[in-house]
Each structure stands twice: as structure tokens, then as C-alpha cells.
Amino acid sequence: xxxxxxxxxxxxxxSFLLHSTPSSxxxxxxxxxxxxxxxxxxxxxxxxxxxxxxxxxxRIQMCDNSYPKTAYWKEDTxxxxxxxxxxxxxxxxxxxxxxSCSWLNGPIHSNSTLFSLPHLRTLNLAGNDFNYSLISxxxxxxxxxxxxxxxxxxxxxxxxxEISHLSSLVSLxxxxxxxxxxxxxxxxxxxxxxxLLLDWSNMSSIRPNSLMNLSSxxxxxxxxxxxxxxxxxxxxxxxxxxxxxxxxxxxxxxxGSLPKCNGSSIFLKFLDLFETRFSGELLDSIxxxxxxxxxxxxNCNLTGSIPTSLSNLTKLTTLxxxxxxxxxxxxxxxxxxxxxxxxxxxxxxxxxxxxxxxSGLLNIKNLYLSSNFLNGTLPSWMFNLPSLESLILDGNxxxxxxxxxxxxxxGYLDLGYNKLQGSIPRSISRFVNLTYLSLSSNNLIIMxxxxxxxxxxxxxxxxxxxxxxxxxxxxxxxxxxKLSSLNLSSCNISEFPILLRIATTLQxxxxxxxxxxxxxPRWLGNVGRDSLYFLDLRDNxxxxxxxxxxxxxxxxxxxxxxxxxxxxxxxxCNASSLKVLDLSHNNLSGMIPKCLxxxxxxxxxxxxxxxxxxxxxxxxxxxxxxxxxxxxxxQLEGPLPQSLxxxxxxxxxxxxxxxxxxxxxxxxxxxxxxxxxVIRSNNFQGHIGNPKTKFPFPNLHILDxxxxxxxxxxxxxxxxxxxxxxxxxxxxxxxKYMGDGYYQDSLNVTMKGLYIELxxxxxxxxxxxxxxxxxxxxxxxxxxxxxSLKGLNFSxxxxxxxxPSSFGNLSNLEWLDLSFNKLMGEIPRQxxxxxxxxxLNLSHNQLTGHIxxxxxFNTFANDSYTENLGxxxxxxxxxxxxxxAKKPPPLALQQKDNLETENGFGWQAVSMGxxxxxxxxxxxxxxxxxxxxxxxxxxxVKLEQHIMLRRLKKNAQRHGGKK
Length: 963
Ligand SMILES: *[C@@H]1O[C@H](CO)[C@@H](O)[C@H](O)[C@H]1NC(C)=O
Ligand SMILES: *[C@@H]1O[C@H](CO)[C@@H](O)[C@H](O)[C@H]1NC(C)=O
Ligand SMILES: *[C@@H]1O[C@H](CO)[C@@H](O)[C@H](O)[C@H]1NC(C)=O
Ligand SMILES: *[C@@H]1O[C@H](CO)[C@@H](O)[C@H](O)[C@H]1NC(C)=O
Fold this sequence. Notes:
Layout: H1 6-19, H2 25-29, H3 34-43, E1 46-47, E2 55-56, E3 61-62, E4 85-87, E5 94-98, E6 104-105, E7 122-124, E8 133-134, E9 147-149, E10 155-156, E11 171-173, E12 195-197, E13 220-222, E14 229-231, E15 244-246, E16 252-254, E17 270-272, E18 294-296, E19 318-320, E20 342-344, E21 351-353, E22 366-368, E23 373-377, E24 390-392, E25 397-401, E26 412-414, E27 419-422, E28 436-438, E29 443-448, H4 450-453, E30 461-463, E31 468-472, E32 485-487, E33 508-510, E34 517-518, E35 534-536, E36 541-544, E37 556-558, E38 563-564, E39 580-582, H5 594-598, E40 604-606, E41 613-615, E42 628-630, E43 635-639, E44 652-654, E45 659-662, E46 676-678, E47 683-686, E48 702-704, E49 709-713, H6 716-721, H7 723-726, H8 730-733, E50 747-751, E51 754-758, E52 767-769, E53 774-778, E54 791-793, E55 798-801, E56 815-817, E57 822-825, E58 839-841, E59 846-850, E60 870-872, H9 891-895, H10 907-916, H11 919-930, H12 947-961
Parallel strand pairs: 5-7, 7-9, 8-10, 9-11, 11-12, 12-13, 13-15, 14-16, 15-17, 17-18, 18-19, 19-20, 20-22, 21-23, 22-24, 23-25, 24-26, 25-27, 26-28, 27-29, 28-30, 29-31, 30-32, 32-33, 33-35, 34-36, 35-37, 36-38, 37-39, 39-40, 40-42, 41-43, 42-44, 43-45, 44-46, 45-47, 46-48, 47-49, 48-52, 49-53, ...
Antiparallel strand pairs: 1-6, 2-3, 4-5, 50-51
Helix pairs in contact: 1-3, 10-11
This protein binds 2-acetamido-2-deoxy-beta-D-glucopyranose (4 copies).
């Protein structure tokens, strides 16, 4: 029976399927007519527009005009005429099949009749959805195949070994099948191969060097984001015919240094090596690649200067050298490249001014120069670029005024963190496409005139923070329908901008550090009613009761440093998404709402320095999320709830300066993340006793129980097992701070005799403060094992006995206060070996004998030793002789307050800070103190105020700006 007419084709196929045995299957498959094979193949698939979505990356553009080719196939016509089908003119064999972007949806199994087209030379099924089919080993049967393209079509699993049998293959494209596993280097056997594209597959088990010795006729090698690992002796650039080379995103791939290739790589058009590792500099020879259009070396660890030879590459449209360590002057000749559409030099260390004149850049869309050391004024050409869409210059040192833009095309403008002056250009009002506008942290004088921004209907982010906002026109008649982030922090404003009233889509609002005073207007409660999740009103002059806000979606609320009075409203219990709540430094009274403590979401609760009273609610729930709890400086009373033991993630607990009573909270000793425990200045009492667990407080760095009524012996066993205080590997943690930077971790501690606020706390900062209690007995020797301790304060107790010589092992100790006890005997000589000891107070004891001399001890003054009748030697005027012990010290010495240090900095500077009431002053004192001692520094780096905004911006840059 002939199988020519379509009516018989299906019958033929059925009879063939019925009569063929599995073993004869594949041979019989190839015996059916190609047209019926195609028809049957088509029947196993359905059509779905979503199977071929248009796809765009920086290099490929796919399925822009997709349509279902097979829908136009006509069954009773010759399949050689069908769309996408190519037949050999003489033999009538189907030799080509192109069904790319044809809405095909469904699996391709090994029994598919697709595999009975043995004469296929080209096969393109890219841009469809084959439902995570495995790539069948039958693909290895297309012996004549020269071009195989299965990219972006939802194949899955391993590529079959049989692909290596396609010995005529010239082009193999399996890219964009996410995670496709490549375990065999099939290309090694394919001698005709010129193009290999496997982007997004998983090549982690392939040795990069199996890519060596590719045929000299290779034109395309594209393996980005393939998880290639290890070192690659890099000769690709020297392949004489290479045109496209893309190894980007293999961040474990070490390419060594870029090779020099004489005369070759002149055809290279596309070179993308972003996020691979290089060592060293970019060589001048890169200027020989005259055909280059796209050069992306983003984040490649390159150093040195940017070669000026790059300006020979006149065909360049994209040049990305961002996130490297390029130094030296900005190469001005790059600005004359005629065809550039994207120039990305941000996040390097480039210096110098911008060119005064440019001849290129007529097509530039994206100009990114942020985070360098560029200076000078913004040249006029910058405002005349006709195609400019993103201008990102933040984080440089530009001065002068911002000019008026000529074109209307800008969508993204960031001039923040410079030294610009003057006002904002009026031309901004014409940017109907503008989505992102940041002029933050300049010296601009901004009139928030509504006519100017009212036309920016696409504006999503507006950041004028840290400038002088001189006038806000508060007559509103417009909306900014897309505004999601508004930052007017540090703008010197004194009232809530009414434009907020209509900002219904707002997600992030920052009005901190202004002079906004009085009651919060009622309408603020409606701002971003369903969208607001971040609200910062810190550091203003807000008064009256707590504002009625829409708490629904709120995640972070900062209202600290205002003058709010009254109670925390129970409405706050509606804030079921609240993660961070900072109401510190107000005048709030009443009780802590139970719901706050009961929350399973709250991560930080900061109610410090208010007038809250009552007990701490006892209902911390199991599995809660708390990491920071600060209740310091209120009038809370009653016991510390035992349910705090449910806070498995807790890192900071500060309940100092309240009226809490009870015994030492040993039930917290199982909190493995607890770093800071401050219960100072409360009414705790009794003996501390022994720990109940083997390793109590395994992560504790700061333990402050001072100013309570504890009594009995010092808790020897606790000291024995405080793991985190025994050994901190400083090399490893040197620059880590406590917390995750989400919230600025700050804490009041007593340091060197002063009660101060640390704004960020280094993880190696470890102190113990037991002062002002009634501890008695001797100091246990075991304390000498707490090698990481920076500060130890046992002053104002009833301790007796000797100072253990083991204290000489506290090699990190910087201050030691044992004053006002009943210690006796000699000061152990070993203390003189403590290299970092800066403050020593042993006054008011019964110590005797020779004060150790040498090293740090040469820097301590008399008041370290006052009221110890038996001490003698430097710095005391009393000489050590047999009668010394009996003479009282001269009165003048006791009172003289002279603690000059080796750095020439005295406590005067510190008390100046005190006088101003500025904690920071004291810390500056401390910092000055530390200069020249690089070992550890309590860095006062203020966390960026606007983490959230910066984060948002980063996303915008990555998604909107490029890639
Ligand atoms: C191919 O399959 C599609 C979807 O199942 C169908 O619409 C089309 O008519 C088929 N073409 C032929 C010639 O059968
Ligand atoms: C082809 O194979 C698949 C999966 O093994 C099976 O579900 C399907 O029924 C087979 N089709 C035919 C016509 O045998
Ligand atoms: C190379 O191709 C030949 C011929 O198709 C095949 O027999 C052989 O197994 C292949 N070898 C490898 C390593 O792929
Ligand atoms: C970066 O390059 C330097 C040499 O310039 C090299 O020492 C260093 O290991 C490189 N870093 C990485 C992460 O590859």
C-alpha cells in the first residue's frame, strides 16, 4: 500500500505502529514517508502562544514575532511546501526543519516520528516548550545533521553521549535550557564544529581544559553561566576566526591573564567575560580587536589603567568595565567612540575630570560612571546627548551646577553623593519617562515645586535627601501615580509635604533627620495605605500622641528621637508584618502592648529611653523571630520573663536601667546566638550560682550585670565556659560587626570608665562588667582564660584576696577596673606584659608592694593606685623602702586628674564631649586614643541611612539599566 495520499498516511502509520516490534521499531520508523512523519510529529504537540514568549538578553533576541507555523500546514499538500520544511530538490528528502518559535507545546519522546527524518541537515526547534523532555539519544541518528538548535525550548536532563556521533555537525546550540547537564565533552569528537552554544547549562563536572585545542575555524563559543570551574589555559582569543566569545558568569573560572595574540582575533565582534576571574591588567593589545562591538569585562578583578587603545575600537556599541579596580585618569578618548550605546565604567577607582568636548556618544543610551573619584564640573555636552536614557554619576566628587537637559529621553538619573550646587534643572519636568531621580547628598537648594514634578507620571523613586529643601509648595492638584519611594531625609524641612497625601502607591517613605514638629497630621495615616512597608520619621520634633498610621503592610517603622507622649496604641497590633520597630528616645508611657512580645515576625524591638512601666509581658512565643530587644531606660518592673528562653535567634538583649528584679537569668544561658546581655542598673539580687548547662552562653561577648544587688562569690563556673570570650580568632572576624547591618546595632556600654554608646559593635568586642554589686570572696584564677576580653570591671564590690597572676594571660585586655574592693597583696608583675592595657584602676584597695614597671605601666598615672596605703614606686612619689607602707600618700596626688597618654591625648577631650552631651564626642576621643594602634578599632561608621533605597536602586540598575 502506498502511503502518498494524506488519507492513507495515518492508516499507514497506525499499521506500522501496530505491526512493528520494539526491535524493528527504529528501522521501520525511517521507512515511513517524511510527510506522514511530520504530520504525526505535529499531532503529538499542541499549540500554545506562551510556549514561545519573546525573550531578550543582552545578546540574543528571540521569538519577537512568533507564530504557529504548523497551524498553516495543509494535510493534503506536499509537505515540501509547508512553512519551515525544506526538501532536497532532486531526492525530495526533507533536509531542513525550522519550527523555531512556533508555539509548540508538549514532550518529544524517543518514539517520536521526528526521528524518522534521516536526511535532515538542519533542525531548529528553538523557542518552544517541550515540557522538560529529555534530549533523546535518537538525536544521534541524524547522521547528516550540520546544524542543531534546541535552545530555549525546555529540554532537561543530560545531553546524550550520542550527540558526539553527529560527525557532520557545524553548529550545536543547546543554550538556555536551564540546568541542562553536560557531562561528556561531546565537542571533542565533532571535528567540523564551528559554533558551540551551551549557555545556562550545568558544566560543573567538565574540566575547562577540555575546551582547549578547538578547531581553528571556530567562530562562536558561548558558555555563559555554565558553572565552569577551575583554571583555563586561555587561548580562545587566539582562535583566528573567532567572532563570538562568551564565557561570562562563570565566577569560578580562572582565566589567568589575557593572552596576546598577534594578528588574530580581528574578527571578534562579541567578547563577554563578565564575572570570570582574571589576574592583572588589561593589555594594550585589546585595541587590535578592530571588529569588537560588545566588550563586557564587568567584575573581572582587573587592575591597572584602562588602555587608551580601546578608543581604536570604533565599532564598539557596549563597553562595560565596571566593578573592577581600574585606576588612574579616566581615558577621555573613550568618549569619542562614535557608536557607543552603553558605557559602563562605574565602581572603579578612576579619577580626573570629564572631557570638555566629545565627538561621539550620539547614540549613547546608558552612561554609568558612578562610584569613582571623578571630579570637576559636569560638561555641557552631557546635557545635549540626544538618546540618553540613564545617566548615573553618583558617588563621585563633581562640583558646580546641573545644566538644563535638551532631550526628553531620560528615564533614570542619579547625581547623588557629589558636591553639586545650585538648583535642580527645570528641564526635568519634561522627562515623562523618568522613573528614578536621585540627587541625594549634594549641596543643592531644592524648591519642591509641584509644577516641576507633577508631569513625571512614571516616577517611581524620588530621592532629594541630604540637601537643603527650601520651599515646599503645599497646594496639591496632581498625583504621581507610580511613586513608590520618597526620600526627603536631612532636607531641613519643618512640615509634612502635602504631596504625600496623594502618594497612594508609596512603599518607602523616609523623612528622618528633619525639623518636622508638632502632631502628626491625621492624613498621614492614609499614605500608602496598602503599600507602605518602610517608614522612617526618626530625628524630628514630633509631639503629641503616637500617630495613627496604616499599619497593615508595615515592615519597618522608625520613630525614634522625637517627643512623642502617651501610650503605644493597641492599633500597632494590626501590624502583622512588622519586623523592625524603633520607638526609642521618646517620652512614651504606659505598658508594652502584649502583642509586640507575642509576635512571631518581629525581629527588632527598640523601646529604649521612654517612660514605659509595668512588667515585661511574659508571652514570648515559641519559634519567634526576635534578634534584638532593647528596653533600656524605662521604668519596667517585676521579673524578667522566662519565656525569653523561646527567643532562639536572640542576639542582643538590653534591659538595663529599669526596675527589674529577681535572680540572675540563668534560663537564658541556652540561647546559642546571644551575644550581648545587659541587665545593668536594675534590682536583681542573690547568688549567681552554677550554670545549668555544659556550655552556658556559648556566644556571649558582652555581659553587663553591674549596678544590681548580686552577692556571694563570683560565678567561677560561668567564667570557665564562656566560649566566645575564651578564644576569638581575630583574623577571621576582624571587620565583622554584630548584627546583619539591617539595623544599626547600637548599645550603651561602659568602656574605659565611661558610659557610652557604641554605634556598631565589632564581633571581637568582649567585655564583662560586674561592678557595683556585693560580690565577695576571691577572684577566680580561671578568669585568666578569657583570652578575648577587652574590658573587665569588678569595681565597687567586696572582693578579697590577691589579684591572680593569671590575669597576665588576658592578652587582649584594654581596660581593667578592680577599684573599690578589699584586694590585697602585690600587683602581679605579669600585668606589665599586657600589650594593649590602656586604662587600669586599682584604687581603693589594700594592695601593697612595688608597682610593676615597664611597658604599659609607664603610662598609668597616680589615680590608678590611689587609696592603697601599701603601694610604692612609679608613678607614686613614694619610694619603695621598708617603711614605705606606713606613709599616707600626699593629698595632691590623689586629686590631680591627669591621665595623659602616650599619644598626647588626655581625658580632657573626652570630658568636652561629655559637656556637650554628645556621645559621639566621647567616641571621637576614643578613636583619637586609638590612632596608631591598628589592631582593632571600634569603627564609628554610621550605617547608610537608606539601605532600603539603595537596594531598590541596585535592582533598578540591574534590571532597568542593563542586562
Ligand atoms: C498541527 O498541530 C496543530 C495543533 O495540534 C493543529 O492545529 C494543526 O492543524 C496541525 N497541522 C496539521 C497539518 O495537522
Ligand atoms: C511514546 O512514548 C511515550 C513515553 O514513553 C508513551 O507515553 C507514548 O504512548 C508512546 N507513543 C506511542 C505512539 O507509542
Ligand atoms: C566519536 O565518533 C565516532 C563516530 O561517530 C564514535 O564511534 C565514537 O564513539 C565517538 N567518540 C567519542 C569520544 O565521542
Ligand atoms: C585578583 O587579582 C590579583 C592579582 O592582580 C590576584 O592576586 C587575586 O588572587 C585575584 N583575585 C581573585 C579572587 O581571583
